[in-house]
Amino acid sequence: MQITQDAITLIRPDDWHLHLRDDSALAAVLPDSAKQFARAIVMPNLKPPVTTVAMAQAYKERIEAVMQAKNIEGFTPLMTLYLTNNTTAQEVEKVAHSGFVKAFKLYPAGATTNSDAGVTDLLANCSAALEAMQKHGVPLLVHGEVTDPSVDLFDREAVFIDRVMLPLRNAFPALKVVFEHITTKHGAHYVRDAEGPIGATITPQHLLYNRNVIFQGGIRPHYYCLPVLKREEHRVALVEAATSGNPRFFLGTDSAPHAKGAKEAACGCAGCYSALHAMELYATAFEKAGKLEALEGFASLHGPAFYGLPVNTSTITLERRAFEIPAELNYADNQYLVPLAAGEQLAWSFVG
Ligand SMILES: NC(=O)N[C@@H](CC(=O)O)C(=O)O
Ligand SMILES: [Zn+2]
Ligand SMILES: [Zn+2]
């Protein structure tokens, strides 16, 4: 990694948590991710969810068709399957032998966007599948929030650790687990201190903002995602984890596009769009912490090490030049997409 006053050059990063959607939305957002990242773990929460290797193959081909149509090269989608109450050990075996499906994703039923098909009771319903994942070294990626309506929204990650994560990892201690998009000091400290194979992804919004930003001068739906932004002490713990050099923490944008109209609504969708300017956002967070030198490990080294994949061979450069985040972008079907921190200015610009 090379850091000067005016530029940072680092090994090309990967995005270990990304929503690419489908059809015209896929075509609208894919170029942004492919510009900055060499690979991305592609989330399976489509409608209907991607639950079989055959469906993942078809989805991958749709992604590749967009790449071909838009002359995108040098980007590899790493596919995932959506874990359901009905996932069989045979499907896990197929994943293990597929080469292109890299993980299963656990969405507790009702926890987030398109999670209706999610798991209702993990250990009761999915033990055979989990056993097979552990045996074959297939990672389980976890949206770590309980859905119990009696648990306060802001406590759902911390309660998930006690109610689901600990029993899960007790029962399957060799299972590789990624605690996705952690948002609390509880999540960060659990992953830092736990035994066995575990990692966590951290989004740019959870490094840059606390929950106040959602209510600054009025309600700001483009800062609403799940798990929701938390108090400042949690943001500080996440920055500390991301910049610590600990290989358990790696980059996952959770870039989750929703049309402007679907966010600016009486019941707005959860998700922030950050694929446009992901590395500029992360560089901003790392520089604020005085830890720019830790960016390459987080963005380009720790993820491949966890997944057992090679490190990328090319590099990217960010220049110290103001980047004005556009107010909106063109999206699918003549709709608009509002990027994270729209209208703000960042000190870094991606140059390729
Ligand atoms: N993060 C979000 O707020 N939304 C994601 C789903 C998810 O990752 O939970 C989405 O698909 O829109
Ligand atoms: Zn999620
Ligand atoms: Zn997500």
From TrEMBL:
Source taxon at top rank: Bacteria
Secreted in keyword set: no
GO annotation, biological process: 'de novo' pyrimidine nucleobase biosynthetic process; 'de novo' UMP biosynthetic process
Tagged with keyword Cytoplasm: no
Residues noted as binding Zn(2+) 1 in the record, renumbered to the chain: H17, H19, K105, D254
Cofactor(s), names only, from the UniProt record: Zn(2+)
Keywords assigned: Hydrolase, Metal-binding, Pyrimidine biosynthesis, Zinc
Domain Amidohydrolase-related: 15-317
Free-text comment on the cofactor: Binds 2 Zn(2+) ions per subunit.
UniProt cross-references to InterPro entries, sorted A to Z: Amidohydro-rel, DHOdimr, Dihydroorotase_CS, Metal_Hydrolase
Pathway entry: Pyrimidine metabolism; UMP biosynthesis via de novo pathway; (S)-dihydroorotate from bicarbonate: step 3/3
Enzyme's top EC category: hydrolase
UniProt xrefs under Pfam families: Amidohydro_1
PROSITE patterns: DIHYDROOROTASE_2
Residues forming the catalytic site: D254
SUPFAM superfamilies associated with the record: Metallo-dependent hydrolases (SSF51556)
UniProt binding sites for Zn(2+) 2: K105, H143, H181
Binding-site positions, substrate: H19, L20, R21, N45, H143, L226, H258, A270
Modified residues (N6-carboxylysine): K105
Family: Belongs to the metallo-dependent hydrolases superfamily. DHOase family. Class II DHOase subfamily.
The name this protein goes by in its record: Dihydroorotase
